[in-house]
Design brief:
2 strands, two-stranded antiparallel ribbon, 154 residues, single chain, mainly alpha
């Protein structure tokens, strides 16, 4: 299996593992707590975990998971310029530098746009991973609080 395929499969496995690890914990009243008591304890532990970690899972869920828009224009313009230069050189050999430059610019623009899109996808993936890590931190704090109050948390 080529290295790049193994890398992609590994990255996907880590993404799935991070998503599973950051799922909201399941709480069981191990000491016969009433549903009302459990609801009150979960509310108080929500506030404690939010305050102690600085992470609000409700606010985090309300914000879209997308990294700030990367400036793709530079990659597109750079690709066009490189393509035009290469196309002009090839066109000069073939006898029409202007036509070669135009074709090279189009091909370079497409390549630059593709690179910009790949860069944005990578940035979005990193943003999703950071969100999962934040949720995991919050849920660990919440679980510690609930366990301290006599609940089983998984």
């Amino acid at each position: 299996m080529p290295i790049c395929i193994r890398t992609v499969i590994g990255a996907m496995a880590l993404s799935v593992a991070a998503a599973v690890a950051a799922q909201q914990p399941i709480v069981y009243p191990a000491k016969g707590q009433s549903p009302q008591q459990q609801s009150q304890d979960e509310g108080e532990c929500y506030m404690w975990a939010k305050q102690s970690t600085g992470i609000d899972p409700v606010a985090l869920a309300a914000t879209p998971v997308q990294a700030q828009q990367q400036p793709g224009g530079a990659a597109v313009v750079g690709g066009a310029a490189k393509g035009a230069a290469g196309g002009a050189a090839i066109g000069a050999i073939a006898g029409n530098a202007g036509k070669g430059a135009a074709i090279g610019a189009v091909v370079g623009t497409m390549g630059g746009a593709h690179r910009a899109k790949e860069n944005q996808a990578a940035a979005n993936s990193q943003a999703q991973s950071a969100r999962q890590q934040q949720l995991n931190t919050y849920y660990r704090a919440q679980a510690a609080c609930l366990q301290g109050r006599g609940y089983t948390v998984n």
